[in-house]
Design a protein that fits this description.
CATH topology: TIM Barrel
Shape: globular
Helix content: 25-40%
Number of domains: 1
CATH class: Alpha Beta
């Protein structure tokens, strides 16, 4: 019964989120060209998910995209944050870009990315799974964390802990984890920019990657995110770690079954990935044993050089 429940959960997720899961030999990028910059983000009337097959365009990502470097964080010899230095003001605006909807990197090379969501709704606070952090450090494994703004508000020390380690890069996961399809243009901008601002205020840097809460999006959300200079990053391997009875062993089997060159694997580090810390060493050892190289999302899609 447990395995049937997990399989059903995965099937529903994959049907909903991976409708554009064709496997080309180069990064899966859906690109739209925005009109010349107006004074506000372009207005759309679309209310449903765009048809990826109708808009798919394979193209290289410009190397002129600004590079974000996470600065070191003051810490004790044990790695515990001893000081939180905040800045006032808003994050500098990033240049507008075309819309990018990315589910995977190149299928030609054995690189892949581990990603972890750190999010919460203001009415439903979450935590931080130190076991995941410790496993990544132990295995010297790069990863990309997508942080919610409200999560950072209640977890400034953990935000700095991640920002201060060169293994990791940070992305934007909205402020309050809403369904982006239900928001107006102004509210989408607020979700994006408030999160950019708090990360800038805590770390002095800001993300250039964005992950849709629950993977839900429409044309308007994609366009506003690109207007603010961010790449939309989805995934092609769902571990189903929020399912409480999804064991570490079963998570490993899911990864074995679905992973391939260029994969983006989604997990959760907000204490809602019930067995993720237990599964992570098994997953890392398996992937490296199969010859895969773990990289950040920016390395996977060509924004940063590969290691």
């Amino acid at each position: 019964m447990r395995r049937a429940y997990i399989c059903l959960f995965l099937s529903l997720l994959m049907t909903l989120l991976l409708s554009c899961s064709a496997q080309p030999s180069s990064p899966t990028i859906i690109s739209h060209t925005l009109p010349p910059p107006p004074t506000t983000p372009p207005t759309h009337t679309a209310t449903s998910t765009p048809n990826p097959t109708a808009t798919r365009s394979m193209r290289l990502i410009s190397t002129s995209t600004p590079t974000i470097t996470i600065s070191a964080v003051p810490s004790s010899p044990t790695g515990v944050i001893t000081e939180i230095s905040t800045r006032s003001g808003k994050a500098p605006s990033l240049p507008h870009i075309d819309v990018y909807f990315i589910t995977n990197g190149s299928r030609d090379e054995p690189n892949l990315a581990l990603t972890f969501d750190l999010c919460q709704k203001p009415s439903d606070p979450t935590g931080f799974d130190e076991g995941i952090f410790n496993a990544l450090i132990k295995y010297n494994a790069p990863a990309t964390f997508f942080l919610g703004g409200d999560w950072m508000r209640t977890h400034p020390e953990e935000t700095l802990l991640l920002a201060g380690n060169s293994l990791f890069e940070l992305g934007n996961h909205s402020w309050s984890h809403p369904d982006m399809r239900e928001l107006t243009e102004a509210k989408i901008s607020a979700e994006v920019l408030k999160t950019q601002d708090i990360m800038y205020q805590l770390t002095g840097e800001q993300p250039r990657l964005f992950r849709m809460p629950s993977g839900f999006y429409n044309d308007l959300a994609l366009s506003v995110i690109a207007w603010h200079g961010l790449y939309t990053i989805q995934w092609d391997v769902v571990t189903a770690d929020p399912v409480p009875d999804n064991t570490a062993e079963n998570m490993l089997e899911i990864v074995k079954d679905r992973v391939q060159n260029g994969s983006i694997i989604i997990m959760h580090a907000n204490s809602r990935g019930w067995h993720t810390a237990e599964a992570l060493p098994l997953i890392i050892e398996y992937l490296r044993g199969e010859g895969y190289t773990l990289v950040t999302i920016s390395q996977l899609i060509g924004l940063d050089p590969l290691p």
